[in-house]
Amino acid sequence: MRTITILSTALLLAIGANAQTTALDFTAADCDGMQHQLFADLDAGNAVIIDLVMMGCSPCVVASHAITDDVIPNTNDPDRVRFYSIGYTNSITCAQMNSWKNTNAFTHMVFAGMSAQTTYYGGMGMPTIIVLGGGSEHGVFYNEQGYGASDNPALVAAINDALAGVNGISERHSTA
Questions:
Q1: Residue 118 buriedness (CB in 10 A; 0-12 / 13-18 / 19+)
Q2: In the chain, fewer beta carbons within 10 Å around the N or the C end?
Q3: DSSP structure class, residue 152
């Protein structure tokens, strides 16, 4: 019985680890009504940053400003980087996300009603920042809960790797 329990636990951990090495596709309208398909962005050679946020989270605001002002401009090709903030739960509405965006003078795309992203990437620490890329490999290059300015070099490196198509979250930054 103990062997079965150990094997079952190992299998669940392996499945969970695999879920975080490949991006979760979505087709959704952002809160301005523009349609997006994640895999189309990745297939076009872009890197996509997903920032899972909650309302009233000051570290979420700090992280979003840092990504916009300090991280993306320092990547090898800022024009190929897409930045999406997503409300971490389906109870966060587009009205709330747009208010958050406008209050904080953000210009990047925001989404609501996509809690499947939070579940998939394990984002219960806010913010949770994910970097996706690698073309048709749809890889996860960074997945981290929380944010500090010391994370900026790792984010820049993960985005550059995602743009170059280098595979594997373990090559750059692993989840906690």
A1: buried
A2: N
A3: H
Predicted model pTM: 0.84
* Of 115, 119, 123, 113, nearest in space to 93 by CA: 113
Find out whether 110 and 97 touch, Cβ atoms under 8 Å: yes
Cis? peptide before 153, omega within 30° of 0: no
Q: Which amino acid is at 95?
A: A
Per 3-state DSSP, the chain is made up of helix, strand and coil in percentages (nearest 5) of: 50, 20, 30
- 158 in Cβ contact with 141 (< 8 Å): yes
